[in-house]
Amino acid sequence: MAGHFVTFELATEPVQVQTGTLLTEAAHQAGIDLLQPCGGQGRCGRCAIQVTNGAVRQRSKLRLSQEDLEQGYALACQAVVEGDVSVYVPPQESLERRLTTDLTVAEVAVPSGYNAASDQPVRRIALTLTPPSMDDQTDDWSRLQTVLRKETGISELLVSLSLLRKIGSVLRQGEWQVTAVLDSMGNCPSCPARLIDVLPGHLSSDTPLWGAAIDIGTTTVSVWLVDLLTGQVKQQVAEYNRQIRRGEDVISRIIYASKNGGDSEMRDLVLASINDLLKRACQREKANQRKIVRTTISGNSIMMHLLLGIPAESIRRSPFVTAVNHIPVLNAREIGLDIHPEATVDCLPGVASYVGADISAGVLSSGMDDSEMVSLFMDIGTNGETALGSREWLVTCACSAGPAFEGAGVQHGMRATRGAIEEVWINGETFEPTYRAIGDAPPRGFCGSGLISLLAEMFLTGIVDKGGNFNTTLPTDRIRQGEHGWEYVVVWGDGNSQLSTITITHVDVDNLIRAKAAIYAGFTVLADSVGLPLEAVEQVLIGGAFGKYINVEKAVEIGLLPDMPWDNFHFLGNTSVLGAYYALLDQKLRDRIKDIASRMTYIELSADNSFFEAFTSALFLPHTDLSHFPSVSKTLRIPKIP
Question: How far, in Å, CA of 240 to CA of 221, rounded?
Answer without folding.
Answer: 6
